[in-house]
Amino acid sequence: MSEVRRATTCPYCGVGCGIIATCHDDAARRVSIAGDPQHPANQGRLCIKGSHLAETVGLEGRLLHPMVGGLRTSWEHALDQVATILASTIATYGRDAVALYVSGQLLTEDYYVANKLVKGLLGCAQIDTNSRLCMSSAVAAHKRAFGEDVVPQNYDDIEAADMIVLVGANAAWCHPILYQRIKAAKERRPELYVVVIDPRRTATCEIADLHLPLRPGSDISLWNGLLVYLDEHGGIDHDYCARHTQGLEATLQQARDEVGAIADVARICDLDAGHVAAFYQRFIDTPLTLSLFSQGSNQSLQGVDKGNALINCHLASGRLHRRGAGVLSLTGQPNAMGGREVGGLANQLAAHLELEHAEHRQLLAEFWRCAPISAYPGDKAVDLFAAIASGRIRAVWIIGSNPVVSLPEADRVGAALARCPHVIVSDCIADTDTTRHAHILLPALAWGEKDGSVTNSERRISRQRRFLPVPGEARADWWILSEVGRRLGGGSMFDYQNAAQIFREHAALSVYRNAGATRRRFHLAGLAQIDDAAYEQMTPQQWPVDAPAHPYADHHVSHADGRARLIPVRQAPDHDRRDAKHPWLLNTGRLRDQWHTMTRTGLSATLLAHTQEPYVDIHPDDAQALGIKDDDLVALHRQEAHSVLRARLSTQQRRGELFAPIHWTGVLSRSGRIGPLVHARCDPLSGQPDSKMSCVALQIPDIAWQASLVSAAALPLPPLYYATQIRLGQGFRQALAEVAGGMSFADWLHGLTLPTLEMITADDAAANWHRRAWLEQGRLVAFLAAPWPSTADLDWASSLLGQRLDGQQRKRLLALQAGTASSARGRRICSCFGVHEQTLIAAIRAGRLDSVAAIGQATRAGSNCGSCQSELAELLRREQALRTTAVQPGRALHQDPS
Ligand code: SF4
User: Fold this and answer.
1) Where are the beta strands (DSSP E) in 38-133?
2) Which of 135, 286, 830, 893 stands 20 to 30 A from 118 (CA)?
3) pLDDT-based confidence at residue 885 (cuts at 50, 70, 90)
């Protein structure tokens, strides 16, 4: 076939980077990926995840045919079944007994049809989305402040700002290309002042002039303290407030009632008073201040209030809706914003229409030509699965999401699905923790196969375009939803032929009866008539379309009087519920090289090389007190849930607090999921779970034995206390461990069912040391080492998979004598060029390198996507500290801001 080259968009985070994808061979699905230099979000750059998308587009593990009751069936039969289940459940139990749970991974067109199916045809609002978990608090804060869910700033405010405040946002790992924009701006203008507000000293702190490691959950006191400081030091813009806002006095009074002197703030937030004072004064002195906030602020019992407390400070000081000054929410998923546009949340309607407004419901019913829209909101994500558990919801259709991993109290989600009479799952992956509960499986198109649009964090709509052939019987989500809609009597409501037609309708709805002074700012004028050819060619553009780039450039917001609202908020006292049984505070978040539940990034051996097992970060002093060493296994408990993770000693942590990544699944590990440990307490306004402050117990298991197994093919996870499996180099790697009283090593080895192969062994029973290698026709197919060898040794052993080994090589393998080339290389830091920690240290020492750029020139590390630059800088700092011994490495970031 001829080469197919398309401009598309990255499917991971909300930065929304443009990609040029080229399919060189559609049968082999051989693809190359490059950043799109024309795309305004990234101007050609991609982070490590985007750069390695080509490794994730194979057909391994794909769901390619409809399945009912575990058997392959036709689309006709599967769709008939879905329609019958929805109709009969509604007929028997009522409309609220069915629900859709969708995803920020969906394209806007898919999302639009899902929402129309539920709110326009089923006559309820039982649809919610996994975006509830990442930014619904920001949505509610925007609505309270501005009267509409409008992100009022743009990415190019970064280059215009004189101070950037990152709030609960580890952008270096979670929004890497934006982080690199900030970094580049700071390199050009070193006077650009960067503040990071985060309990952890994350990789983002690498560019921070000031890091405020506040007590988790104390943000509102910090912002209320700033408001009081602004008032006392001439920082309030009274003219701006008088013309453009409401609520200043009441909000100020609330703040004054809560916090007085800076010393109060410092005590409540557990911060250095001098640093707080310096931050506050810097805020006053810097009119062009841009604040970026993300999950660290949103995922909280007071996520909405935190958002408004921050916005209050910007409104009071007139630092909003100007180039370089304002508040920008960073969305997690590629189309979280698109979902908001089409009303993907249970308490929203499409096109920024409001469920609680009778006039809006009427407008929408008129536009859709459907029965009156229900005035009652549906269940928000956590409540939705609780309703499944209680039996109130009896049929659920999960689309493009893996809630058995990602939701709080995830074991209960799994148990709820196990009891639910009807579980329908649309996905492109066959085996996930969630598809294991499905009665009906519907194969969806994956990235690279589907066509549509997404909207990023700065309201920029970009096309995702197909560049791969459609595999098996997979279909677009909008097609599947439309087919069900037709079967349920939706007729012409779902008569869609392509994504362009749906987009046109979506754009037309945004302008339908939307004019005048109180018009909604979500407005796609100019796109409502877009024809198929123009849609195909559509270049990235921000909404409002055909309007100034800043939706509130005139400072008139969407409230009826055009004035923004300052919202009085107060710090709730009881966020931290640690007790004697659960004395640790567990924070959760993302890794640099993984995405969500690893169904896609877990296919890339390159991305897996950065972090190979689920882990938990613990402060070294806490670890020492408990006798925990780096890489020990520890168990975390909360109620009946537990996870077993590798300990990583990290000075990034505050004492008494832990951090664990969210990504590991039950498919990849027996006990690495962190979701079961996260409590299901939510913000009362947004319904967003508080995923940052769960209280857990920590135990040190009595490990009897541990082993690593590398194999050419994936093997089933054994029923041991600890077991994980990932891709590694040429094959797969299992990390295994059992506790005292569990299965003995001998029994497990005896039961290990590899095909009859030649086996060579080496044992030292006294030292409890064992090695096995299995060969077929002289070629290595599997290798076992107990106890765990080093990662470098395993890398080397896996590099031999498939190779014919002579006698000498077999001896070296059993002894794990890799030779000089691979011994003790340490962690892989730069995934793009495969550069390991010890190589970097050697280069730094030999060349007396003193900058990340110099390391890049010497080793190439960090010179491609740049995602590892903060880790390179950390390494450099450690080496420099060793050289001088005068600097405390853990404190180097806490510069005196004065
Ligand atoms: Fe994709 Fe990385 Fe860009 Fe996010 S920053 S959209 S993950 S390339």
Assistant:
1) 67-68, 71-72, 98-102, 127-129
2) 135
3) low
